[in-house]
Specification:
By secondary structure, the protein is an alpha+beta fold. Helix content is 52%, strand content 18%. The chain folds into two domains: 3-35; 43-115, Histidine-containing Protein, Chain: A (2-Layer Sandwich). It contains four helices and three strands, in the order H-H-H-E-E-H-E.
């Protein structure tokens, strides 16, 4: 066989092998497909993702100067965010919850916020 005939045959064999592997996977049972899925996150990765989401919520709250974010704690667990702490007036509770819900990755928000007026007011 000459060099000109060798390249198309190799290319055709490569394409056939590639298509064959795709067909096998597509026709395989659910177990074969499931085994190619990424492994579940490790506890360390989950904690890291939760901390990152909490920081995103804090950053979003910090952009709103009318919110005293220093008196609010944010706990994230798998996209569920819990807000705890105090705000200076009731309307801020709605604002804080709305800001938290708008953060990408937040699936739900639970508010345990309460109104606390500074002494002398």
């Amino acid at each position: 066989m000459n060099k000109k005939g060798f390249l198309p045959i190799c290319l055709a064999a490569s394409i056939a092998a590639l298509l064959g592997s795709v067909d096998v996977r597509a026709q395989g049972d659910a177990t074969a497909v499931a085994s190619t899925a990424p492994a579940a996150s490790t506890p360390r990765e989950v904690r890291k993702a939760n901390r990152a989401l909490s920081r995103k919520v804090y950053a979003a709250l910090a952009k709103h100067k009318e919110i005293e974010a220093g008196s609010i704690s944010v706990v994230a667990r798998g996209g569920a965010v819990t807000l705890d702490g105090t705000v200076t007036n009731a309307s801020q509770i709605e604002t804080v919850v709305a800001v938290a819900k708008a953060v990408p990755g937040v699936k739900s928000v639970t508010s345990k916020l309460s109104v606390h007026r500074p002494m002398g007011q």
